[in-house]
Amino acid sequence: MFLMNPRTHLLAGGVIPALPLALDANRKFSETHERALVRYYVSAGCSGLAAAVHSTQFEIREPRHSLLEPVLELASRTIDEEMEKSFRPFVKIAGVCGLTGQALAEAELAKSFGYHAALVSVAAWKSGSEDDIIEHYRAVSGVLPVIGFYLQTAVGGRVFSQKFWRRFAEIENVIAVKIAPFNRFQTLDVVRAVAESGRTENDRPNNTFTHNNAVVRLDRTISPALSVGGTVRWYHGEIGEPGDRYTNDPNNTNREDNTLVTVFAEFAPAEHWSGRVTVGDQERRFTAESPAPNPPYFSPSDTNHVKNHRAVLDAQTSFDGIASNRITAGVTAEQTHTENDGFGAIDQKQSLFAVFAQDEFTPLSNLFLTGGLRRDDFDTFGSATTGRATVAWLPSGPEVKLRASYGTSFRTPSFLDLYGKDTYYVGNPNLRPERSHGWDAGVDWYLPEKRGVLSATWFNTDFTDLIVYNFAVFPSTVVNADRARTRGLELSATTTLGGAFEAKIAYTYLEAEDLATNTRLLRRPRHAFNADVWRAIGHDVTVGAGVAFVAGRQDVDALTFATIDAEDYTVARVYAAWAVTPSLTLKARVENLLNEKYEAVNGYPALGRGAFFGVEWKF
Asked: Whose CB among 170, 329, 497, 593 lies 3.0–4.6 Å from 501's, allowing a Cys bridge?
């Protein structure tokens, strides 16, 4: 198996599923089915696999089960066996739980089985302080690179401050965060913290966020073939809204109250047949307050109230009793109701009923086909049928893979698109649904002697009534672009250069056009290039360098709202590590090595050159 730096591998993007726990008819661990699951994920082209990480698998660590070691060992061994057949990067991630003593033991166990990173849950820290948990993460990072886990409170997670996640992101051996609180404000906490990690002068007025959550969840297993459950979630949050660096509004605030109730049933009436039915109801209240002075345009004070109600029924079932097929089908019904006093007297309802079906078909050992259809019926925007088909073929063994896909889509405007309103944005109730159809075709070539993989993909998507932002008016709004197209070429290479350097290179050429106005779609760069190269130079020293280049963008001036040609930028970094002893490692890196002054989004400056040093001591 081939893996470069796990962080670099994650930054390249990919799918990393959580490995389910396979049980037999007696609800005992089934090694045969577990191995089949691992082989399926590897063959499907996943870029990694995470074992013993899902919240439903926390109990495998209990003495009455004692399944952690068998699960980790079997998954790692099967991945290694499968990857011998197809040389490409693949990351193995192990779940790590418990207080520090248990977590360190689990991390060492995972390391002994060849795992590359640890997804660390802190659900066991019910009463510890954020300082304690930061030190816990730091300790585990001394054994394996760490992926943080923001777990939803419904299954034992805790709520953490933005400051906590900023400190977490600054731990040297942290490479990622799994963000799963199922709460958009908590998600934003992590995103902001990661973006700001390493900064000291980024504090802004009116940038506070406070919230409260309450969750109750009940589950019951009626029989081996039936389980039921229900959840009640309540949320209240208040957030300051300062805007961009030109605005810095001192007192705009948003308040939100959200209640969600769901009940579900999971069933398996026969060996090859399973399904799930979920019913949910959500009530949301949102208030946006914009007191004077409202810079930079000093508009009068305003308060906007939004009420949303949403009811959903979702049912789906899967059947794999036909050789070489797995068939999934289901229905979705949804009713939404929105009231908004900030855009006239909005009182709108929308109903949806949808049916869908998909078949995953493997007619030959080297040919993989998928086909699916979905029919959506909206009482507001009419009906639409969409579909998707994919094919992957290995014509002469694992060295070359040809692949292609075609699909259509239909997206109705959201109520925010139609009726949203704050100081700087107003919805457009005249929007039409967005439709698209697209295809892609590509090839993967696995180099001889496990020297790497080269990939090329051409893609093309045509949009009708694409929903885009219009910043040429104030307040800004959304409109339908008559016709639009995105197309381009993706190239990537993962290889070993001269038997010494490891490298990963990716380039995307993108044409993104509004065909009605012959203008480029905003914030879609024509050229995007990334490269990372590193080498072990001896004496336990590793050095590396990376570069990212972006060019050919259009953006909106955050002050004037005029369309502008955004600046191109190149960001470079260098890094090194020296394992002085088996217990002591010195690390250093320089981010934005060339001190590039740029804004990925106009009005929000990026961090300049920064040097970072670390000492890692294992004892």
From this structure: 497
